[in-house]
Amino acid sequence: MAKSSMIARERKRQKMVDKYATRRVELKKLAKDGDVEAQIALDKLPKDSSPVRLHNRCRLTGRPRGYMRRFGICRVVFREMANDGKIPGVTKSSW
Does the record bear Heme in its keywords (predicted)? Predict the structure, then answer.
């Protein structure tokens, strides 16, 4: 289980990204056209409002590594759930 402070920090970043998403898109469009003031305004936005700073985490444990995008969980939880038959269509392979 990940530290609860790290999970909370990631949630805070996600809220910040959602809050500034439209503003960031508008400013990026203007800055791409060469507007210097838009670039300055973009620089003044909070760092955590950038989607690049987000990190995928397991929904159940908060584990940051071994994340499987398709399922939204880490490999450890995926294996446990697959062995218990809780993920439809996933079976243990054998050859």
Answer: no
Q: What CA–CA distance (Å, rounded) separates 31 from 17?
A: 19
Q: How many Å apart are CA 5 and CA 39, to the nearest integer? A: 32
Burial of 31 by CB count in 10 Å (0-12 exposed, 13-18 middle, 19+ buried)? middle
Residue 74: CB atoms within 10 A of its CB come to 22
Number of domains composing the chain: 2
Same domain, yes or no: 30 and 75: no
Question: What predicted TM-score, i.e. pTM, was given to this entire model?
Answer: 0.79
pLDDT greater than 90 at residue 54 = yes
If asked whether residues 45 and 62 sit together in one domain, one would say: no
